[in-house]
Amino acid sequence: MRLDECLDQHLQQMRANGRATSTLGQIQRHITMLMNHLGHDIPIEAVTRESLAGFLTLDSTRTRSDGSYKNETSLNALRSSIRNFFRFCCDAGYLTIDPSRLIRDAICEPPPPRALTDDECERLLAALDADNDNESTRDRILFTLLLQTGIRLGSALAVDVADIDFDNAIIELRCTKRNRPDRVEIPRELWSALRAFVAFRKDGRLFAITSRHAQRRFQHYCSRAGISRHASPHALRHTFAQNLYAQRHDIFEVKRALRHRSFSSTEVYMRCAEL
Predict the structure, then answer these.
(1) Under a CB-based contact definition with an 8 Å cutoff, are residues 29 and 7 in contact?
(2) Yes or no: is domain 3-91 CATH 3.40.50?
(3) Each residue's pLDDT tens digit, 239-264
(4) Neighbours of 257 (CB within 10 A)
């Protein structure tokens, strides 16, 4: 079987297993990088341990489009995609020997959270308040919701109008990491703006915007606010967590608020506060 055919089968199995769209996209990008190097139509049996090691040590694999080097956590994600792909090929009977069996992750500390400073938050909120058209109102509510609740962008964009209970100030989160339905309180200062934004709608998506467009809009406001470093909407989740820990000094409360499964994912905020 050809390498590209195996990728199609792998993605189909991942969909059948209920993997998130973002996970599927990452695997497809990573294995496509490998196929661009080895060839899309080569037999899966032709892939060797040596060819995988050669691919992982190429400068083109280890650098970004701007020429800067990727960090090891990004390369570990690539290594993981390759291991999972070839493990599937073995389990599915396309291979008898796994050529990725010796690939190991680099040992590295998790990167510090990319939170915004208090000054950056003030400038960002001022930039969000500068315009009053429908698009700006949507963006202001979306990004303020992320900053004040710490929910992920994907969860917010999946909210339906019917998921909002204004009487009890609750938003049902039906799209979450690992598909665990949850709920979050509507911040008191956001209740009126959100109610006006919903108006008389009874159903449909709360924010009719894609994740990619939300990223572009966030960069637009960062530029307007004079935030020169690269930041994504996920920085608002980090900012929420750091502020919560600074206020309460309770890492377990932060863990609950972020809905982390593992404490190790949360303790990075405690380490940052101690620096």
Answers:
(1) no
(2) no
(3) 999 999 989 889 889 899 988 887 77
(4) 20
User: What residue segments make up the domains of the chain, in order of their start?
Assistant: 3-91, 118-274
Question: Would you call 230 exposed, middle or buried from its count of C-beta atoms within 10 A (0-12, 13-18, 19+)?
Answer: exposed
Reported pTM: 0.69
3-state SS of the chain? CEHHHHHHHHHHHHHHCCCCHHHHHHHHHHHHHHHHHHCCCCEHHHCCHHHHHHHHCCHHHHECCCCCECCHHHHHHHHHHHHHHHHHHHHCCCCCCCCCCCCCCCCCCCCCCCCCCHHHHHHHHHHHCCCCCHHHHHHHHHHHHHHHHCCCHHHHHCCEHHHEECCCCEEEECCCHHHCCEEEECCHHHHHHHHHHHCCCCCCECCCCCHHHHHHHHHHHHHHCCCCCCCCCHHHHHHHHHHHHHHHCCHHHHHHHHCCCCHHHCHHHHHHHHC
CATH architecture of 118-274: Orthogonal Bundle (1.10)
pLDDT confidence band for 181 (50 / 70 / 90): confident
Report, in angstroms and rounded to the nearest whole number, the Rg of the chain calculated over CA atoms: 22
Q: Is 3-91's fold the same as 118-274's?
A: no
16-49 pLDDT per residue, tens: 998 888 889 999 999 999 999 999 999 999 999 9
In this structure, what token pair is assigned to residue 214?
């939300």
Q: Identify the CA nearest to 222 among candidates 206, 243, 241, 239.
A: 239
Written as one letter, the residue type at 252 is F
